[in-house]
Fold this protein.
Amino acid sequence: MTLPKLSKLELQIMEALWTRGPCSVREIQESFPAKKRPAYTTVQTTVYRLEAKNALRRTKKIATALIFEAAVSRDSAQRRLVDELLVLFGGRSRPIMAHLVDSGTLTLDDVREAEKALLKLRGEEKSK
């Protein structure tokens, strides 16, 4: 299954499902901060769009409330976003890394973790 492209609101709804687990539309809407909470009908429409994109699915119905759960993992959604970002930079990661270093977002622990992942990947490639 190809991962659908998700808007900012769609990602926020997915985040509610990833964090809380299966939820009704009302529970998803109430997960937003009170001052920035979208209307119930906006959340409902967006949830139905996410269902059409196969990003989430209905799991059950309690009285009149439909319960939804994420059908796409947080990890796969994050990978899709990073891939889209890399496309904007022509596939080059160096400008992104430079920005993360300059902004102070990238920590030494992040670099060590990335180095471990690269060494592991290199080891897997050699064994092929």
User: Anything to note?
Assistant: Strands lie at 23-24, 56-62, 65-70. The chain has a mean pLDDT of 91.
